[in-house]
Write a structure and sequence with these properties.
Largest sheet: 2 strands, antiparallel
Low-confidence stretches: none
Number of domains: 1
Mean pLDDT: 88
Strand content: under 5%
Number of strands: 2
Oligomer: single chain
Distance between the termini: 75 Å
Strand order of the largest sheet: 1-2
CATH class: Mainly Alpha
Radius of gyration: 25 Å
Order of helices and strands: HHHHEE
Number of helices: 4
Helix content: over 70%
Structural class: mainly alpha
Shape: elongated
Length: 163
């Protein structure tokens, strides 16, 4: 494949990655809203949609890596930049712009995904704590109080399931 065709291929890969990345960002934002609303059914649907997008993005990344390997370059950002720098100036400017946009977009996706993960972990911990209380398995630094307000030892605390 000629260099001109390889640069066109990279531009096409960037365009496809940007389109899929934008879809992923929108799904992550929708997931955040669903998490805030505690809409587990919507979160499940969005997770399925994200799981459909991820392999497609992975395939595009693999194709990009193959292009770099064909040019005996590293399959990292340094190798990608080296490849882009080989392009004619007009093509180079276009590719660098798209590389920057893609990097920013994927950074946004990563940030929102991390935030969503924190929300999910906190919700899970809260649910586990509530279930432990219901089962009478309260431990750690949580105090348990009786009907008259006195602090009870954990072995005297009755689970709600026995009430």
């Amino acid at each position: 494949m000629s260099n001109t065709n390889q640069f066109k291929t990279l531009a096409t890969l960037f365009d496809q990655q940007l389109a899929l990345g934008q879809q992923l960002l929108e799904l992550l934002q929708q997931e955040r809203e669903a998490l805030d609303q505690r809409n587990s059914e919507q979160v499940r649907k969005l997770t399925e949609q994200k799981n459909d997008l991820i392999p497609r993005l992975t395939t595009l990344g693999a194709q990009q890596n193959e292009l770099l390997q064909q040019n005996t370059l590293a399959t990292d950002s340094t190798g990608l930049t080296q490849f882009i720098n080989r392009a004619p100036q007009a093509v180079k400017d276009h590719l660098l712009k798209h590389q920057h946009q893609l990097s920013q977009l994927l950074g946004q996706c990563k940030d929102i995904n991390t935030s969503n993960g924190i929300i999910i972990a906190a919700s899970r911990q809260s649910a586990e704590t509530a279930l432990a209380i219901l089962r009478g398995q309260v431990g750690g630094n949580h105090a348990v109080y009786g009907a008259s307000g006195e602090q009870l030892s954990y072995d005297k605390a009755n689970p709600l399931g026995k009430a």
